[in-house]
Amino acid sequence: MHQPVQMKYAPVKNYINGGFAESKGNRTLPVVSPIDGNPLSTVPMSLTADLDDAVAAAKKAFPAWSRTPIKERVQVFFRYKYLLEKNLEELAKLCSEENGKTYGEAVAEIEKSIELTEFACSLPQLVTGEVLEVSRGVECRTEHVALGVVASIVPFNFPSMVPNWTLPNAIALGNCLIMKPSEKVPLSTGRLAKLLKEAGLPDGVFNVIHGDVEIVNAICDHPGIEAVSFVGSTKVAKLVYQRATNNYKRCLALGGAKNHLLVLPDAIPGMTAQNVAASMSGCAGQRCMAASAMIGVGNIDSIIDKICEEARKIVPGENLGAVINKESQQRIERYITEAEQQGAVVLVDGRQAKVNGKENGTYVGPTVIDHVTPGMSVATEEIFGPVISIMRTNTVDEAIAIENANPYGNAASVFTQNGGMARYIIDRASAGMIGVNVGVPVPREPFSFGGWNESKFGVGDITGKSSIGFWTKLKKTTIKWNAEAGVNWMS
Ligand code: NAD
Asked: Is 328 in the pocket of ligand 1 (CB under 6 A)?
């Protein structure tokens, strides 16, 4: 007889109308900690009927919430920010457990969630409309109006931060939101739902529906949902963008990445090596902003030596977390082996990484691969692991051509002390977020986050000021009160 598996947490539930709710379906998936392979919980694969309940609750909440003045709405987020701070340790622990990242990385993720919330608190200052007397006694004015019920579909790599890219802004701007977390990391979102309730968010304004492809498709098809934001791989971003826009919904879909670093011989060696090593290995390389391909222009051998030195200081289970599951671990190792077979040289090898006492954890050590050529799969495909693939060119223009030829366009960075050369590369790199001597060039609030090319489908960015355009529509009103204004050809 099988012993029932001991779960650390109770089964995950949906969150509808201010309370946790069982799914109407009976299919569940296990939730496992990548740190040690221990079972944490189960997550329901919801049905369209569950989504219908969430949309109905959100629709019911929308009139009162959207008519609440924004200065009142953001009070909820001042309190939510305080609650994120107060519960930081617990949130970070849960995030690390379900995702596999280190506790320190999880703390940084919650701190970023706090910054995102601070931005939402500033929205009343940013969404004032415009007014102009357009002819005598006649004024035109504009105001930002909430869309209605909106949805946000998120990936596994940031269980707290990516939900907080959309949640505070969409809701503070007057919308009611349905969040679809990744089935691999469903626990953190439930905790956020509780904090929002404690912060005083009215029931129905925020709802969580768990599931996989079936529920994502149902979100794209649901007639009660006005807009869909998506963050995940390019393959799925394309599917979601097509399906949602085919149903005449507003959609912003952020995809995968292959971020290039251009390292010039005059780069400061120590700083460059530290930045490159931290960028490729942070969150076990599972960041859409991670450095993945590096192009050395001219002779940068001594910088590569230093990068290897830095990489060797990064130890799985100590300052390097786990990758999300066995499938990912095997995929990453396959890429390394394939590169080696194609003639690349593995300078630091992260394959077969083991952590004592955590034999069922899924780890890949930091990996530096040199003499990669542009046609190899490690040069062109998103690996999503702690791996840097180094290519060499003689000129900056050749390096730019390699960067430009990659289909993605999330981030690119240049390492140099030459300002003119940095400007030359900034102007020519085909990516939405550029770094100069910065390994992870994430724009901080109020600047917005978003890539180009196959890293993003749709108009505008997902965070910061640019998100206002996505989560609202403009109402334009022309007003005349006094008869002396008369009648002219325009009004
Ligand atoms: P994913 O695309 O597999 O999953 C993302 C979401 O889509 C999840 O909620 C998942 O349940 C759902 N999903 C998965 N397959 C689906 C399908 N066939 N049809 C409909 N929905 C589906 O991504 P992931 O593995 O969770 O996350 C890693 C990816 O996300 C990487 O490619 C990474 O670069 C990307 N990412 C991008 C950004 C960005 O800002 N551009 C940020 C974070 C992560």
From this structure: no
Structural domain including 315 reads: 259-436
Cβ 291 vs Cβ 279: under 8 Å: yes
If you compute the radius of gyration of the chain from its CA atoms, what whole number of angstroms results? Answer: 24
Does residue 189 share a domain with residue 165? Answer: yes
In short, whether 216's Cβ falls inside 6 Å of ligand 1 is yes
Q: Are 202 and 296 in the same domain?
A: no
Compute, in angstroms, the gap from residue 121 CA to the centroid of ligand 1. Answer: 28
Single pTM value for the model: 0.97
Examine the domain organization and report whether 470 and 357 are in the same domain. no
User: H/E element holding 165?
Assistant: helix 161-172
Of 95, 176, 288, 308, which residue is the catalytic one?
A: 288
Task: Give the CATH number, domain containing residue 62.
Answer: 3.40.605.10
- Ligand 1: which of 160, 216, 228, 442 to mutate, judged by most atoms within 8 Å of the beta carbon? 216
108 and 151, same domain (yes or no): yes
CA 257 to ligand 1 center in whole angstroms: 11
Residues 87 and 207 in one domain: yes
> What tens digit of pLDDT does each residue of 76-124 get?
999 999 999 999 999 999 999 999 999 999 999 999 999 999 999 999 9
Is residue 288 annotated as a catalytic residue, yes or no?
yes
Q: How far is the CA of 1 from the centre of ligand 1 (A)?
A: 38
Contacts of 238 (CB under 8 A, 6+ apart): 253, 255, 457
Does 2 map to a domain? no
pLDDT band at 1 (very low <50, low <70, confident <90, very high): low
Note the pLDDT tens digit of each residue in 228-287: 999 999 999 999 999 999 999 999 999 999 999 999 999 999 999 999 999 999 999 999
| 94 CB-side CA count, 13 A | 20
480 located within any domain: no
